[in-house]
């Protein structure tokens, strides 16, 4: 009596288990009709035929390698259960016959694969090729449908929902809806990144606020994901272009901010910036040679630790952090603005903001006209492409140009049209704080202190011979510059060429 093993498979777990039952029925009938003894059955549920890397198929290969002398046939319902890759399948069944003397039988198709029989070999090859062609056609339809859904309909189809959103609706009505609690976290992450907060600090803050995605790159992926700007990334399909397309879901981040973050991520220095509350100026304050100062504690004979700012060049700066911090706070006292001047600043700010709002409104209208023109150009290119009036190279050359211009114009319109009422509120709430700059600095956390220094001195704060020096400083805070120098806190010299004590880094 001949002996056989059989292999059953269906590709999607969502399919009815009836697929396996049907395959069992047909192979059972074949076994009974041909008086064959069934040795074992191997079943892969929910596994694709594109690869042989399937759990039970691997077990089947191990079984054959051990027991091939006691097995004559490998039964399958149809050859496409075995594989949909014609080339790999032909090599595999050839190996079973040549190496193990086991023949593959497709019971429904009535084919016994025999490499030495031309007719059998041709029929088996034809069935496998037809199965592969069917798989290719199905794949094309699926990819075409996905392209249409994403590029034309603006639907987000990725299985995992992005942090900051929830999925609502069913079928084609399913879409992303903002989860406001999570969206607040996303906005904070983008804001911190644009304020040059070190990435490791952003990640710490994210998890402190309830960010629940795992992995070292989870925050990086949020910062890079166009979904937060109301866009969806689409892969090219046949002759249709890929890229970023407008989505139907609401954006959490405006397009301008998202684009700024992408630009910063490309230029981001890979050197990790470590923030220490005891030495907040580390990496922000520079030596007179131009090198950012490091900082570290030094242990005294009594066992107490004292912090110092140091230059990598041993003969340059080695500054007591206590002294440097007190000097800076004294300079902050002299940066404080009188109430009379604050009143004048408030009035000037109001006038400037109102004027800017009018200008922005006018610019927004102009940008909308530009957007209409570019959109029309893009529509013309697409129409000519569909009518075969231009070749693919011309289409590929102009499509990304116009689509990129559209994205930039939409971002500009969004920025220019934003409600600026918040500006007046922030101005009224915080402007009076300028009367006590020491308070502003001391009440800030370490990251805010670093941002304060970079903003006031435009990233140009140096230290030499026991005093701070800078060639750049906010005008409104420099009114007591002569007193700062007189008291030995800070020297402010506007012209770079007279500030000869700051040569290029490392010299």
From TrEMBL:
- The segment(s) forming the Resolvase/invertase-type recombinase catalytic domain are 3-153
Q: Which PROSITE patterns match?
A: RECOMBINASE_DNA_BIND, RECOMBINASES_3
Extract one GO molecular function annotation from the record: DNA binding
Kindly indicate whether the keyword Glycoprotein belongs to this entry: no
User: What InterPro entries does UniProt report for this protein, alphabetically?
Assistant: DNA_bind_recomb_sf (IPR038109), DNA_bind_recombinase_dom (IPR011109), Resolv_N (IPR006119), Resolvase-like_N_sf (IPR036162), SSR_resolvase (IPR050639)
Coiled-coil ranges (or none):
357-384
Keywords from UniProt, A to Z, are:
Coiled coil
- Looking at the record, the residues that make up the Recombinase domain are 162-271
What Gene3D superfamilies has UniProt attached to this entry? Putative Large Serine Recombinase, Chain B, Domain 2, Resolvase, N-terminal catalytic domain
Which protein, by its recorded name, is this? DNA invertase Pin-like site-specific DNA recombinase
Write down the species: Flavobacterium circumlabens
Q: What is the lineage of its organism?
A: Bacteria, Pseudomonadati, Bacteroidota, Flavobacteriia, Flavobacteriales
């Amino acid at each position: 009596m001949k002996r056989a093993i059989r292999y059953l498979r269906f590709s999607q777990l969502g399919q009815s288990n009836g697929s396996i039952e049907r395959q069992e029925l047909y192979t059972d009938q074949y076994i009974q009709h041909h008086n064959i003894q069934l040795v074992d059955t191997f079943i892969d549920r929910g596994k694709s035929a594109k690869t042989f890397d399937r759990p039970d198929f691997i077990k089947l290969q191990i079984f054959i390698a051990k027991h091939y002398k006691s097995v004559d046939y490998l039964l399958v319902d149809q050859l496409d259960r075995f594989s949909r890759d014609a080339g790999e399948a032909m090599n595999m069944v050839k190996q079973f016959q040549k190496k193990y003397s086991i023949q593959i039988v497709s019971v429904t198709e009535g084919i016994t694969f025999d490499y030495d029989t031309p007719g059998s070999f041709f029929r088996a090859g034809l069935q496998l090729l037809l199965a592969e062609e069917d798989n290719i056609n199905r794949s094309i339809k699926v990819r075409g449908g996905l392209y249409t859904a994403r590029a034309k309909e603006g639907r987000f189809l990725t299985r995992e929902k992005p942090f900051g959103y929830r999925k609502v609706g069913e079928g084609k009505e399913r879409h992303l809806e903002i989860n406001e609690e999570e969206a607040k976290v996303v906005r904070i992450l983008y804001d911190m990144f644009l304020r040059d907060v070190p990435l490791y600090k952003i990640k710490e803050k994210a998890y402190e606020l309830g960010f629940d995605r795992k992995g070292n790159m989870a925050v990086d992926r949020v910062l890079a994901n166009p979904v937060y700007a109301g866009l969806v990334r689409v892969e090219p399909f046949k002759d249709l272009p890929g890229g970023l397309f407008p989505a139907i879901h609401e954006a959490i981040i405006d397009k301008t901010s998202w684009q700024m973050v992408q630009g910063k991520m490309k230029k981001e220095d890979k050197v990790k910036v470590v923030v220490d509350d005891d030495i907040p100026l580390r990496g922000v304050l520079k030596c007179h040679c131009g090198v950012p100062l490091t900082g570290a504690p030094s242990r005294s004979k009594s066992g107490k630790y004292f912090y110092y700012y140091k230059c990598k060049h041993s003969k340059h700066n080695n500054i007591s952090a206590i002294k440097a911090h007190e000097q800076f706070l004294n300079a902050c006292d002299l940066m404080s603005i009188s109430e009379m001047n604050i009143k004048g600043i408030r009035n000037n700010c109001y006038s400037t903001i109102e004027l800017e709002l009018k200008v922005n409104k006018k610019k927004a209208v102009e940008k909308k006209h530009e957007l209409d023109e570019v959109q029309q150009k893009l529509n013309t290119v697409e129409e000519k492409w569909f009518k075969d009036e231009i070749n693919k190279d011309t289409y590929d050359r102009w499509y990304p140009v116009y689509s990129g211009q559209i994205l930039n114009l939409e971002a500009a319109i969004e920025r220019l049209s934003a409600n600026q009422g918040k500006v007046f509120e922030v101005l009224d709430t915080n402007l009076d704080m300028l009367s006590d700059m020491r308070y502003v600095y001391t009440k800030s956390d370490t990251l805010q202190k670093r941002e304060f220094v970079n903003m006031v001195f435009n990233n140009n704060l140096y230290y030499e011979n026991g005093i701070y020096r800078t060639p750049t400083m906010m005008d409104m805070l420099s009114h007591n510059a002569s007193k700062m120098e007189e008291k030995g806190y800070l020297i402010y010299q506007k012209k770079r060429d007279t500030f000869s004590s700051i040569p290029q880094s490392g010299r």
